[in-house]
Structures are given as structure tokens and as C-alpha cells.
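hey so u asked for the seq, here:
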Amino acid sequence: MDRNSVIGFTLLVALVVTYFLYNKHEQDKYYELRRADSITSAKSHPRVADSSKAANLVAAAAPIDNMNDSLRKTLPAAYSGKEQSVTLENKKLALTFTSKGAYPVSAELKGYKTYWQKPQYLFNGKGNMLNAILPVNNNAVATSDLYFTPTIRNEPNGDKTIDFSADMGNGKKVDIIYTLPADDYMMTCNLTLTGMPASSLVMNWNTEGLHSEKDIMNERMATQLYYKYKNGNNDYFTIKSDSRKDLDEGAIQWTGFRKQYFSSVLISKEGFTKATIHANAPATDTNVVAENREVLDVPMKPGNIQNINLQWYIGPNDYNTLRTYHLDLDQMIPLGYGPMAFVKYINKWALVPIFYFLASFISNYALIIVLMTLMIRLVLSFFTYKSYLSAAKMRVLKPELDVIRAQCGDDTQKFSVEQMKLFKSAGVNPLGGCLPSLIQIPIIVSLYYLFPSLIEFRQKSFLWAPDLSTYDSIFHLPFSIPSYGDHVSLFTLLMTASSLFLALYNRNMTTQDPNNPMMKYLPFIFPIFLMGIFNKMAAALTFYYTFSNILSISQQFIIQKYFINEKAIHAELQANKSKPATPSKWAARMEQLQKSQADRGKQTPIIKNPNKK
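ran it, C-alpha cells below
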């Protein structure tokens, strides 16, 4: 390869390899933690109490469910009853609540199905809970142990409301009111406490995310906890075997449990004063992707009647949907993180708008990938042409470089000096081929994040791939190959084959450095290295890289055949040699600086030592 191609390609390889090695390191850490024993936090059942001394003693002695009928009659209505299920649904959600505790135990998203075309539940079962520790009997009463009376109302605007009411006696009452809009994923949850004044309230929020995608390991790797402070700062962490995080750096606006394509987010208008998050990915349960247990402190205003106003998002990680709430919930879509976090701005301000513009009138998402690739290549075509033109100039100068190399022998320093002289006299920029490679790196990495993150690709088929959001598989192996997997992805094979052909084509079109034989083989090693990584990547991504490689080959062939005339380039370079060298501004500046230093040296008087004879 010529010098500029070596520099550009080396930078590209170094950055991409560093990125993938970082990702692999994080995955290895994750899998190692996943092998550890799963630590599951036990659900506590605090004791219940009544305002009377007798009821307090009875409640402290035994759980309510184990009491006989005579003891139950001594307690207020909230401490006894029969648990029942209540459903609240709109066009998008079907939520099932339990009257014991007054919280949703299941959430079905109507417009979506699992990978196996079953109803899509974000969570379902008793492992899901939202309860408050009430300021009664030294905070010994939890709403999850109370029996509520539900009242369903249909609002005039189409919204539906459930009012769960629990009378605890002696003027103490709890109302938990859920309002589900007619056509939205954002539900409101308002708690009203009567006769139990407190400065703050502790709430417990438990969620078990259910497995719904093709590959549970990829689904777990994409399951994270996000949170945002009211001052605007936000962050996240990936759930591993046993993850714990204490948030106490200011008022927390929301905290979100994000699966690969769906999320459950609890939002406080007043802000949570602090939160303790304990998340776990159970190693043995293949039905549950991850568990989330959070303890939240909610500030309370003084008064006999106190209100807590919450919002609860239960829905898809749809970029446009999340943006409509103006709460920065779209930060949960990973458009760029880690060492390449800067690419999220390329996605957010360029690629995502292009994608949704095309999706507004094109229903075939493979065609959208094709059109986006063409648009990106068109934008970069000027820089691509400059790169190929620089390579052509190097080929034209190769005979003269061979002469210089023969004259210099093993003196590489002398060869470099003479080479730069030749480039300068011919008017060739040795770094002319680096710019296109450097410009393409952020775009390549941006699309690496974009395509697997967009829910629009989920369960969209193309050719032999039934789902562009996960890997395609044409053959399942009876064993697993290290660093490759137990299946064969055809798009990954096509991506690798087209990358190897492109590397071969580039090698034939560029000059080779005989002093660096490794550069002859590195372009062929790199695609093989990536084949194992991309074998379990989304088909949308591997299809993009395949088509991009084919387009690069075609583009290079057209430019080389119809736009680059090596005879004209050779004549131009020879003409440049006869022209007087025009120093660059930087060279002129350096020359002026050297001259000034020399003049100052002449003007400095020499002081003789009087003691020296």
C-alpha cells in the first residue's frame, strides 16, 4: 500500500479494533458475572396494625391472611377482604391490577407480539409491585398488604380511571388512583393519604422483565437501568448478576427499567429525594430477562391530606413516542455510548431524521437501508474521489519511488526525506487518502448503534431473515464455536466475503510497501476477525455493511475507469516539478521564525571574562 493508504487504514483499524475489543471485554465481564449464583431479594411482608391497642397486638402476632374470622372482624375493612383482579385497558395497553395492594401485576402491549408471535407482556406475575410504607405504627404498614375497594370510571374524554380506596379506621384512609388515557402509554398514578401526615414516604417498585426476543443473552445485554435527575443529568448501567446503585445526588425526576425494545418508567413530578436500585439477571430462569427492585423516597407536603403525583410509562422504546413526553426518555435508546458516545449526536441530528423521513412513505425497511446507504455514499463521494485520486498519484510516482528506494538501500530515514521531497515537488499530499477514512469512521459506528436500537426493525422480514432486529440464521450448528456461536448467519458471510473482495480490489489498485509486508495481509485478517462478532448482530446491520461494501466496489470501479486518467495525472505531476516551489503558510512562518532567531543571535553581545587572559 502507499503511505496515505497505510496511515488511513491503520487509523481505521486501530479505532474499530479498539472499540470492538472494549465491547468484547465488557461482554466477557458480563458473562463471567452471569455464571455466578443469582442473588434474588426476598419480598418482605411487613406487619399490619390498627389504631387500637388490641388490633395492634393481633396484627403484630400473625399475618392477616392467617387470622381466623373472629379476629378479622376486629380489624378495619382495609385489613381484611378478598383479593380480586381488575383490568384497565385502552387502544395500546391492557393492565391487570390486584385489589390487594392496588398495583398492576401484568402489562400487555396490544400492538406487539413476542418473537414467537405470542401476546407481548412487559411484565406479568406477582413479582411486580408498587407499594408505599405508610406512616402508621412506626412505618409497619405497607399498601401491598391492604385490601382496596376498586371503582372504575369512564371519563368523558375517553380516559379510564380506577380508584382504589382502603379505609384503615380512625380517620386514616388511602386512595390510589390510576388514569389511563384513551390512546397513550403514559399512565398517571396518584396516591392520597388521609390522617397520616409525614415529611416523606418510602415506596417500593419491583419489576420482572419477561423474555420476548429471539436471543435471551442479547436481550439481557441490552437490558439496563436509566435514571435522570431534575437538574438534567442522566446516566444508566447494564444489569448484571447482582447490580446495586444508590442515587442520592439530588432530586431524581425519573427512573426507568429498559429492556431491549420495551421500558417501564416511574416519573415523579416532585422528584424522588433518593433511590436505591437493586437489579439482578437470574441465571437459571429463562423466562425472566432481569429483575428490578427499587426503594424510592418521595417528599411530602405538610397537611392532613397529602398527595403524591406520579406518571408511569409502560410501552415501547420508540424514539418518536418517547420524545413526545419532553422528559428525555429518548435517552434510553442507545444511539451511542462508551468510547463512541459522541456518535449519538450524529444519529440524533442526522441519521434518525433521515430514517423517519424515509419511513414516512416507505414501508419496506430493507429498502430504507439501501436508500440511506446511497445517501451516505453520495454525501461522501467528494472525499472518496479525493482518496482515489491520491492513490492514483501514488501509483504514478511509484517508478520514481522505486528508484529512490534502490538508491537509499536500507537507510529508511534518508528514503523518507527523499520521498517527501518528491511529494513536495510533484504537489502530492501524502495524507490525502486519510480524510475519507476518518470521516467514515463516525458514520460506520453511528449505524452500528442505530439499526439494532430502532424498534421499527423488530419483526420486519427481508429475504431469508424473518426479523431484521436480530441475527439471521440459515443453519443451526449442533455445537457452539468459540467466538462465533452455534448458528450460521448468511448476511454475515456475505458481509465478510464482500469485505475480502473489497480488500483484494484495493490491494490491486494501490501501491504496496515492500518494507511492511504485514500491511498486505491485515486487510484480509480484519474481516475474518469481525465475522465472529457480527454473527450474532442484527440482520439490519449486517445487511447494511454487505450492501455498503458492494456499493464501495462499484463506486471505486466507476471512479477508476471513468474519472481518473493516470496519463493526465502523470503529466500534471511532471509539470508541477518545473514550477517554483511555493512554501505553505506554515513553512513560511517557520522560516521567518528561524530567521528571527538567527538575527537575535547575531545581535547578542559577547561578554568576555575579565579574569581570563
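Residues 1-6, 26-64 have pLDDT under 50 and may be disordered. Residues 3-29+352-572 form one domain.
lmk if thats what u needed
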